[in-house]
Design brief:
Number of strands: 6
Strand content: 15-25%
CATH superfamily: Glycogen Phosphorylase B
CATH class: Alpha Beta
CATH topology: Rossmann fold
Order of helices and strands: HEHEEHEHEEHH
Number of domains: 1
Radius of gyration: 16 Å
Length: 182
Amino acid sequence: MFDFFYRYLLNKKIKRTLNASYRQREFLNLQTVKTVLILFETKDYNAVCDLSSMLQQAGKHIITVAYSKKSEEIKHKDKANYIITEKDINIDSSKSLSNIKNNLSSITFDLAVDMTVKNNLLMQYIMVSSNALLKVGFHECEHPIYDMLILSQSGENSEIHELGKQMIYYLSTIGQYTSQNN
């Protein structure tokens, strides 16, 4: 019962946020991206760390939001800017979720990446609350959240690292053809 109510509330908030959103959408080349928001589950920390390192080496400023089912599972607290746990599920009274949303809305992101491969409504809510110019996801969802969708063939978490590399490749090639012809 609680799970149904939770999903209903989050779906309603996601739809409301999407309907009220007037964000500018833009397909950016990796060279023009300066700030990146990465959403991930703590179990995928190593793949996120690899992607984050690649982007930081390219001179990008990275902000991360991690989701953990239980707060005691968080092994890398110092590596994520924000951590969301199951206690943040009560979105109407959650101070930490509201703080995260408010802090993130004050930053203009060029790119937001949802590295979760399963439906996580809490992370989708953070994603729709972001004002990123380009939003990339690694799974399909019922809401039109992502501007670019990169799917794994098997849907396995082991492919998250590969999906991150594919995203880097696609972002590197966006706009290359038009700049070569000018």
